[in-house]
Amino acid sequence: MSEPSSHLIAVAMPAEQWSVIDGSIDNTIAVDVVEGKDDVVAVGIAIREAGWAQVPWVDGQWPPMSQVITLNLSRAQWEFALTQLHRWQDLYGSWGDEDRPEVGDQAIEALRAHLS
What we know:
By secondary structure, this protein is an alpha+beta fold. It is about 65% helix and about 10% strand.
């Protein structure tokens, strides 16, 4: 799913929002690998790896959650990320993570703005 850089969409967001996107895709990979959805797993892995390559790591650690980072992915990759955010969004609150649903909503709005 690699596209020429001219077809990439740059999205700037706080690292915290990317963390929720990354986590949502990780959840999808964990479930879908068991269900044998290898195509979905491959897309998810590619997006996470692309994100990791672009995150401005700080001494090998995730940047501060408030730090704005810019990630470049294809429209299809961002749309996949948005779908996974929706897939897991309602569950985050039920798992006791009180901040994650709000940050997830912010990430959803940021992606919608860039994809419309």
